[in-house]
Amino acid sequence: MPQIRVLPDLLINQIAAGEVVERPASVLKELLENAVDAGSRSIEVALEQGGVRRIRVADDGCGIVREQLALALDRHATSKITSLDDLEHVATMGFRGEALAAIAAVARTTITSLAEGERHAWRIDASDRQPAPAALNHGTVVEVADLYYNTPARRKFLKTEATEFAHCDEMFRRVALARPDIAMQLSHNGRVIHRLPPVEHTKRAAALLSDDFIHHARPIDADSGILRLSGLAALPAYSRANRDAQYFFVNGRFVRDKLLTHAVRQAYADILHGQRHPAYLLFLELDPAGVDVNVHPAKIEVRFRDARAVHQFVFHAVSRSLAAPGAAATGLDAESGPARLPSYRQPDQTHPAAIQSRLAMDSGARDAYRGFVATAKPEALGHSPASLTSVGAADTSMARIAATHTDDDAPLGFALGQLHGVYILAQNRDGLVLVDMHAAHERILYERLKTVLDGRPAVQRLLIPAVFGIGSKEMATAEQCADVLAEMGFEIAPAGPTQLTVRTVPALLANAAIPELVRELLGELADFPASQVVTARRNELLATMACHAAVRANRQLTLAEMNALLRDMERTERADQCNHGRPTWTQLGMADLDRFFMRGQ
Amino acid sequence: MHLLTTTRDAILAPLQSVAGIVEKRHTLPILSNVLIEKHGEQLTMLATDIEIQIRTTTAGDLGGSDASLTVGARKLQDILRALPDSAEVNLTLDDKRLTVKAGKSRFALQTLPAADYPRMNLPEGEGTRFQVTQKTFKRLLAQVSYAMAQQDIRYYLNGLLVIVDGGELRMVATDGHRLAYAAAPIEADLPRTEVILPRKTVMELARQLGDADDALEVVLAGNQSVFRFGPIELVSKLIDGKFPDYERVIPQNHPTTITFDRAPLLSALSRVAILTSDKFRGVRLVLEDGLLRIVSSNNEQEEAQEELEIDYHGDALDIGFNVTYLLDVLNNVSHEQIEWHLADGNSSALITVPGNAHFKYVVMPMRI
Ligand SMILES: Nc1ncnc2c1ncn2[C@@H]1O[C@H](COP(=O)(O)OP(=O)(O)O)[C@@H](O)[C@H]1O
Ligand SMILES: [Mg+2]
């Protein structure tokens, strides 16, 4: 019979390390969090060989006094909490007091620290635990070398230097994104990778994330009093094939939490294609008592006391920011801070429409303007008064129409024409607007279908029922989901083992290609047969329907039809992306156009 | 080389009757041209879009030499239209350029060789032939053509079904939501023949046929049809497809029949239509004892209501329709009165003309 024994400390720590110290990046995470917890204003990280050879984290925090250096290396020794009550309100990154012990069990670890009020620094080596005098100006330096030197089995699991470094880099970014107020530096094999001065959030994000992300990002700032969500969410035009651009922080702690991911995903559901992943940088803040961070060894998952409320709040905050119409493509400019939307820019003087509205002023004001031009641009003296008079004299209804046409009530402007049956060109105050006609119409239909189906949809009964062949699997779905389809306006019945009859269609889609539409709906329903899931999937079905009914490319539209589409877009929530997450329109400003012709350079 | 000298209208009139089918922008450049053949005192013009071909032959005092050429149809038409009515026009062909002279105006146009111009072969074999007055054919077209589908993937609905059977000519069109049927007797005794005319052919015939008793000769053979009237010969391909069985769709025994004066009903519907939701244009017809209420509302919660006194004494009935479908029929029949046959809110409505079995219109309701 095997004997039960108490394990030696080193082995216990090595076992614990298995959970906490997975790879160099997890060591770095613990060290960075300790530095943050120590109240540092500046943190420097130096890595060698992807962190396997050496990880050195130097901070300027509170330091550790000589007597406690050895204690810091002990298991379950922490300065951060003393009671269960503390644990429930914990606001520091660390609290278990086991990281340094675990790290010291699997790597050669030294700590050098100058605690406030001490005359000189002390240094402790985890192997002998004897503090010795050392030189250091401030804070703490933790050095971790030769990871897994004593556990070769684990060493085998390490990946290439480049991969391990990439993980460390990501870990560094997470802390850096969470704490833009701390100056941070990362170097690898002697080369500086990041040097980040203390700034505010947007600037730090701009320094660490791609320009594209920043360019496509919508600012978020929602506050319920209890919960606060801030940060950036990228429009679907900047969606990713993987989850690498998803940063969610809860009280400054990076998490990858199912509930939160789901809430954000939901907010994107209407505008992002299923295979794509949204990109975001979000900070949720709440009373630490409202969230349990002690549920995962690496604290990457959390548990909220009121999970539903958090889900709702995050979902609404993100969807509201994504839904606000009128700011496609150029959401944010890192230089000028969030929410400077191009459509609301002041009219600038190079813009013809802006000049026309000036000319519509009374003559006194016009003279004043002329005087301004004369003094401001002496080189144009011979030229401008004449042209001003002639245009001024022609203060006709055309000029007035042009002026009203650039009013704020038509942010997307007025149609000029159609390009190859695909795009609508329109003029607004800022310049040229390009609209993807099909995508925009699809979007509008989708939103309209959604509101209509919330009531009882108008249904057109067919004189000639649509009869078409379907597969036996589709037929099974059709029979199972007949109620759901009827609710949406499709009355269906089998006309044979592989033939389906459709007797009614939603009136909004009366002219759509019914067989294709129904086949596709059945395809989607087949994957999610349970009736509850179907309600959740309703919007995806609507998207399919909208796509089928939207104007196809190559339909010639009249100017009136185009303008109607533009107005519809302005009225429609989330009109800036089609259901597949592509943008529906974009703006080419006068400045962009001038650049084509090298004007004003 | 001098081709001809004649009045402006002697060239413009035949040109206008063929140029309507020329596609504005065609991938085959020569198809934006019209073929002009001058042979003795005969002037023939021909245009095609590959699906339809129209030819006119006119005779007159032309002078000049014989030649065949093709030239931009629209340009020539625009030039001739812009000349004074009374102008005398002179055409000469030199080195592939056609010069149009009138008074002090002079235009030189590029031509393409006549031999390259695609021509549709006339159908072979006897086929089905009959004659009908242009007036009758045109009236039937007007009574049904608005019900054709547009750009439906059931391509055969984007056309008009023409049936000759014994001594009767019938036309049917449907877009799947409503169906229009009209018939007229013809002097013939023909085996039953059904063809589907493409939309463009229907529109062209409706445009060009006259309102008089002049004859129209129709030949249906193979996958083609030929229409000859006046100086015009129109050849059209037919749509190959199975048109829905219209007889099954026309209801036989609807219990309720209401007679309306067409004009007041049309006006009431037109007014109510103003406040329908522009996407599906639904109106509700509410029948009560002796009264019809027509009501509509739109997305902005605006409402319209009209009342008509009617001879109805059954149960109350509430039935919705796309108002466009109702306006279409009322606008396109010319009779003083119409009859409305109803069953219930889920069944089709049949609209006919009193004492006349030659016109039927079936429309499906809409649940609003
Ligand atoms: N960089 C540092 N500056 C100041 N004190 C530190 C630093 N790193 C660790 N410590 C001290 O060592 C203790 C143990 O650290 P650790 O094992 O990571 O546990 P925890 O962070 O969970 O408390 C901390 O509670 C803290 O008092
Ligand atoms: Mg710690």
Contiguous helical run count of chain B:
7
Biggest interface reads: A-B, 17 and 24 residues
Task: Categorize the overall geometry of chain B.
Answer: elongated
Low-confidence stretches of chain B: none
Query: What structural class results from the helix and strand content of chain A?
Result: alpha+beta
Helix percentage range of chain B: 10-25%
Q: How many β-strands of chain A, per DSSP?
A: 22
CATH superfamily of the largest domain in chain A: MutL, C-terminal domain, dimerisation subdomain
Sequence of strands across the biggest β-sheet of chain B: 1-6-7-8-5-2-3-4-14-13-12-9
| Unreliable runs of chain A | 326-407, 529-534
By CATH, the topology of the largest domain in chain A is formyl-coa transferase, domain 3
Distinct ligand kinds: adenosine-5'-diphosphate, magnesium ion
Q: Structural class of the helix and strand makeup of chain B? A: alpha+beta
Shape of chain A: elongated
The gyration radius over C-alpha positions of chain A equals 32 Å
| End-to-end Cα distance of chain B | 70 Å
Strand order of the largest sheet of chain A: 5-4-3-6-2-1-7-8
Q: In what range is the share of β-strand residues of chain A?
A: 15-25%
